[in-house]
């Protein structure tokens, strides 16, 4: 191991910085098993150091003596945040390549002014289609047909390169293809619809009447995956295998499967992600139904046009769940009392058996019960909507405005 590898593995940030500044080779892989500094970074679990190695020019597709990349090594030891960072890193220089005319081109494929906004989207770890459309929409340079067409072309070229280079990068290829598909949809809406990108956002969010499940979004993401041009890709086949048997409206959603494949995120719980834009760490709940969660009032407003149709239905579902959770809790308590009483009355000769409480058979159940109880604790709040948050006068969005409230930390 080189000194840099040691420093990385022990997560000594200052030492890493010092060594890099003095010319340590970030891509040296003369380690006896072909490990690189980036692989050690992934193993160490330090997000900062992983990022530092990437910025210093660490190659992501180098493999060690057993044919594993740094991302695969990190995933193997459960360092999923490092996997996410490695998989979503895309050096700006690789994009800037397209801002200069190449070969016989008279013009660059990508106008220099688009490189920044496009790079921002390429490196995002939130792949929610609404989030990506919002990123397009917020940048006037990007939100027009000609610019998006150029970006699509560049994304498709990067995708092709990822698949054709010797060390294939299927993750990046699928990500580029997926973003390109979203841009293509943006182009269609900009051309054909009067409400432009707002129309696309609405289509992506529109929920079906019964439960508010966004059918168009699900179908759109499935179609993106299906349209990936390299059918032989292992990752594509994995995605198709996980999604194909799932009925639309059931779990896992195409979005969660795709996110997991690309970012390496596991344990995808809805509780933490914004219903509108998929941003992590959302903590504002609709105060009426308590079943959807948002980053802020803005995200809630965008979603309200469709959520208002199912908010009441979801409220009933939620109340039923709370009731059931309470019942379940009581049942569990009674059972525990009974078990304890039984254990106490057991004779010493039976002690061996009493060492094993009947937990095993309850495992699945109790897991659910715990989750539901947690939820009910989380939502133990006054049932009337909070009216003090805003004083908007718009009658249509009024409920949306007032219906957001911060999730309180559970006391237990
Ligand atoms: Zn949001
Ligand atoms: Zn609601």
TrEMBL record:
Output this protein's name: Ankyrin repeat and MYND domain-containing protein 2
Q: In the UniProt record, does the keyword Metal-binding occur?
A: yes
Q: GO terms for molecular function, please?
A: zinc ion binding
Q: Which Pfam families match?
A: Ank_2, zf-MYND
- Tell me which residues make up the MYND-type domain: 274-311
Provide ranges: composition bias, Basic and acidic residues.
Answer: 324-341, 353-377
Where do the segments described as Disordered lie? Answer: 324-412
Localization (cell): Cell projection, Cilium
> Which InterPro entries does the entry link to?
Ankyrin-MYND_dom_contain_2, Ankyrin_rpt, Ankyrin_rpt-contain_sf, Znf_MYND
Any one GO CC term of this protein is: cilium
| Repeat region (ANK), residues | 1-31, 33-65
């Amino acid at each position: 191991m080189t000194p840099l590898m040691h420093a990385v593995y022990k997560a000594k940030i200052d030492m890493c910085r010092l060594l890099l500044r003095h010319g340590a080779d970030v891509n040296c892989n003369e380690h006896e098993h072909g490990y690189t500094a980036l692989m050690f970074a992934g193993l160490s679990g330090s997000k900062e150091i992983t990022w530092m190695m990437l910025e210093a020019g660490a190659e992501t597709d180098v493999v060690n003596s057993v044919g594993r990349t740094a991302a695969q090594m990190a995933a193997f030891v459960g360092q999923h945040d490092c996997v996410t960072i490695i998989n979503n890193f895309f050096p700006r220089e690789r994009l800037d390549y397209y801002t200069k005319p190449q070969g016989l081109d008279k013009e660059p494929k990508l106008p220099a002014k688009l490189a920044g906004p496009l790079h921002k989207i390429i490196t995002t770890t939130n792949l929610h289609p609404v989030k990506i459309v919002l990123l397009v929409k917020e940048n006037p340079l990007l939100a027009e047909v000609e610019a998006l067409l150029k970006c699509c072309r560049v994304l498709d070229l990067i995708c092709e390169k990822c698949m054709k280079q010797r060390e294939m990068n299927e993750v990046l290829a699928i990500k580029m293809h997926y973003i390109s598909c979203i841009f293509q949809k943006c182009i269609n809406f900009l051309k054909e619809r009067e409400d432009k990108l707002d129309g696309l956002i609405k289509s992506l969010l529109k929920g079906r009447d019964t439960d508010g499940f966004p059918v168009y979004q699900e179908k759109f993401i499935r179609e993106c995956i299906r349209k990936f041009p390299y059918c032989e890709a292992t990752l594509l086949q994995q995605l198709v295998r996980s999604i194909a048997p799932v009925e639309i409206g059931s779990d896992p959603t195409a979005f969660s499967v795709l996110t997991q494949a690309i970012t390496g995120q596991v344990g995808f719980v809805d509780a933490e992600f914004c219903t509108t834009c998929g941003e992590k760490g959302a903590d504002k709940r609709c105060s009426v139904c308590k079943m959807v969660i948002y980053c802020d009032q803005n995200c809630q407003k965008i979603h309200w046009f469709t959520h208002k149709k199912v908010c009441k239905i979801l409220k009933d579902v939620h109340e039923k769940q709370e009731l059931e959770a309470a019942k379940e809790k009581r049942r569990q308590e009674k059972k525990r009392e009974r078990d304890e009483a039984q254990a106490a009355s057991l004779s010493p000769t039976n002690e061996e058996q009493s060492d094993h409480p009947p937990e095993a058979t309850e495992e699945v159940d109790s897991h659910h019960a715990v989750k539901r109880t947690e939820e009910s604790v989380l939502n133990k709040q006054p049932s009337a909507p909070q009216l003090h948050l805003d004083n908007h006068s718009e009658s249509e969005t009024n409920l949306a405005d007032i219906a957001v409230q911060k999730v309180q930390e559970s006391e237990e």
